[in-house]
Amino acid sequence: MPVRTTSRWVRLAKQWDLQLMVFPAVLFIIVFSYFPMYGVLMAFQDYDIFQGFTASPWVGFKHFELFFHSPEFWNIMRNTVVISALKLLIGFPAPIFLALLLNEIRHAAYKRVVQTISYLPHFLSWVIVSGFVGSILATDNGSLNMLLQKLGQVDEPINFLSIPHYFWAILVTTNVWKEIGFGSIVYLAAIVGVNPEVYEAASIDGASRFKQIYRVTLPAIKPVIILFSILSIGDLLNAGFEDILLLAKNPILLDISDVIDTYAYRVGIGSYRYSYGTAVGLFKSIISIALLFLANRWARRSGQSLW
């Protein structure tokens, strides 16, 4: 006789206590993530706050065409791609490298101190971090300028945050410093889950610590690395918002700091062009979704994917 499958509704009824626990989280996502998506309609309208969604005239892809033909389009796309690529190429492997180093520390107390120090910057707001960076790079008693002058490398203080040539390096370095510790938590947890007997067997076979990392540790955390690489590639056009907005206060830096998010904020909110700003943001979201699907398809070849 064929085995009767339990109805989905029957299974849900049996798990009513678990469903009740997850209900607030589902409701939160619906209210604050899905319901506001109704606002993307503005991208296809000449939205008027007094007329609302229903009375505002529909204009189709007008605002997308305006964005694609705007003088700033290619400059914004260049800044977005370059800054995102730098954050990905430098910021993505940095937590993995830190997790490998932390795993090699044998003194438990020292290891906890290093972990705590590396995690703390993540919990600082970008307002505090930008002020901290600004004080270090300041021309008036800034730590870096004082050090360079003491070493005889410069004669006069350098205003680093007013020179476009230095901005990308400052931005990426600050992001890595802020997030490297918190990003290493997942990788360190995956490393801790590796069976110690595998390391013992490798040591007996004569493998050095470096070879153990290369032959045992990295393959063990490969699924986690692939998972986060998929998410990072899908997030490629998210070059940043708060960090750029706070670090690039000088108008001189606009040409090399203006990315999709800051442009949408500056033009859409600052100039009250709500429909245009929404179209810019929707364009970025569509490209990000496409990149996520492509990254997942690439990862599927290695047997690891999100779906």
TrEMBL record:
Ranges in a coiled coil: none
Tree of life domain: Bacteria
Record InterPro entries: MetI-like, MetI-like_sf, UgpAE/MalFG_permease
Transmembrane segments: 20-44, 81-102, 123-139, 180-199, 220-241, 274-295
Its membrane topology: Multi-pass membrane protein
PROSITE patterns (alphabetical): ABC_TM1
Domain called ABC transmembrane type-1: residue spans: 77-295
Keywords, alphabetical: Cell membrane, Membrane, Transmembrane, Transmembrane helix, Transport
Subcellular location: Cell membrane
Family statement drawn from the similarity comment of this UniProt entry: Belongs to the binding-protein-dependent transport system permease family.
The protein's name in its UniProt record: ABC transporter permease
UniProt organism field: Cohnella soli
